[in-house]
Amino acid sequence: MDGEEKRENKISFVERINRESGRVTEDPKKHSKKEVWVLEDVTGNEYVSDVSSAAGRQTNSSWMKRGKNLFEELFYEAHPIRQQNQHHLAKAGTDRKLVREQSGESQYSTTESTAAFVKEDYISRDNMKIRLPELVRQFSAEVLGTFLLVLFGDGAIAQVSLGGKGGFFGNFQSIMFGYGFALMIGILVSGGVSGGHLNPAVTLAMAVLRKCSWIQVPIYMLAQYLGAFLAAAVLYGIYADGINGAGGKIPGTAGIFASYPYSGGEWEPSSVTLAFDQILGTALLLIIILAVTDDKNMNVSSGLVPLLIGLGLAAIHNSFGLNAGCAINPARDFSPRLLTLMAGWDSDVTFGATNNYFFWIPWLLPHIGGVLGALLYQFMIAIHHPVD
Fold first, then answer.
1. Disulfide engineering: 348 pairs with which of 36, 38, 314, 352, CB 3.0-4.6 Å?
2. Helical (H) or strand (E) element with 36
3. What is the set of domains in the chain, with CATH numbers?
4. Residues 177-204 pLDDT 10s
């Protein structure tokens, strides 16, 4: 069969559907241009649509563009094949009766009606796909992102703490960069879906600045606490033998999972110092995040945002890790701390009087620091940008 016969088969197919549905087929001589659209869905099936344009009207007119955009929005690819310039039309690989079967014996020969068929076919295949509400997708992304943050970050602490005194497995700089790269990985995984907050203090600050809705705040926070807890549980299982070999559930191994105040013997930071330490560290983190993501400031490429924020966290660890361990993330500290309590570490160490009830400082005060840092950047930098 030559190309001309194939073209006739495709056109007659549409005309046949028109006749069966009772619709009068327009005379092709009245039209100076005629176009056949072969629609291909994600499963590889092809459908044919006869699209005619009136004399003098270009086929790339606005209504045609709207129709094509609609196809693409429905995750279908539309391939225009100009009849007057195309000498061969490859026969579609799918039985053409599928058009009538899926459309309830109705006809589809215009852009709008073909789009309706595409949408109908897409919905009919919807039970084969996982399509989640936006908040559920964001919840899932925050769970996974925070999981990776804590898994890689606390994993670096575990390796340094349990790796022996030879220093082969690193020192504090290993932890510093370990948590910086962990944050980078978490943002890379979740940033395109949820924004990659991974920190309740960040979520609260973003809501105060109206960069996210308040309905997202409890959803994000729950996800972050859950992801951090799951990561701590996995890490405990991976390093259980090393923890037992290092003395078991003692204060030294509890520091793998949560932050604790400095206790070098010669001096100890006061509760006031520890409180301001967490407020300051979180405020600096929010200033870094807002600066990196501010298009009107340095206009950092989106691909560099996770790396630069991670390096910012590493810089904070490098300068403010001594007093309180630089948690500056309520979920990263509280959920693993809760895991250690459930796993059998002494409650006086994890939540009690041994450390002067330190647990509430890295749990609550980062929220204050995050909001202060966000407002500081907003009032000193953001609101002074020139108006476009």
1. 352
2. strand 33-40
3. 3-128 (no CATH), 134-384 (1.20.1080.10)
4. 999 999 999 999 999 999 999 999 999 9
